[in-house]
Amino acid sequence: MAGGALKYRHLGRKSSHRQALLRNLVTSLFEHESISTTWPKAKEAQRLAEKMITLGKRNTQAARNKAQAVFYKPIELMPKLFNELRERYLSRPGGYTRVLRIEPLKEDQAPSAILELVDGPRDMRFAMTAKTLVKERATEEGVRDLTAKNIVKVTRFRQGGQEELERTVRALESREKDEERREQGAIRRKVYPVKNKETGTYIRMNK
Question: What's the rounded mean pLDDT across residues 17-38?
Fold first, then answer.
């Protein structure tokens, strides 16, 4: 209808090609938990991915049949959807995926984005919050209100979220300290002798 609201993006493809594209994107998303694509494709794939998580939470035979019809790799991904991801999002009321704008990936400068599953091992906002927390804890001002709100967002529905965030922060702090010591020359390579079997002499090796 002319002037009506846009129900979905056609993505420059006819219906069958559009569905095949979205199925491929969603399959890759559930396989890798994070994908990079154009902004319009990410937004459309997000809608389908959210529906797939809802099917996983229902965990009925009808839901399984619908999910199997979407995945290009049902043997690998059906168990993940109805076990691992179902448990991950069981207490979350919605918002299972996230779209983040990034710099254009192609020469045509088309708007690009990252589509990811939240609360997973590749959750970018969780990682960014941890890095920000490390920097702000090292300042006199301490943790800002905005960062405190982001901490709540990324840990609220994540199983063991607070503990995992603290582990990530400690790992980042330890890494930064190691890098500082390397720059200052405090960390030196260990030298130990190794016997040459042919000559019977010892040589020095760095570790």
Answer: 94
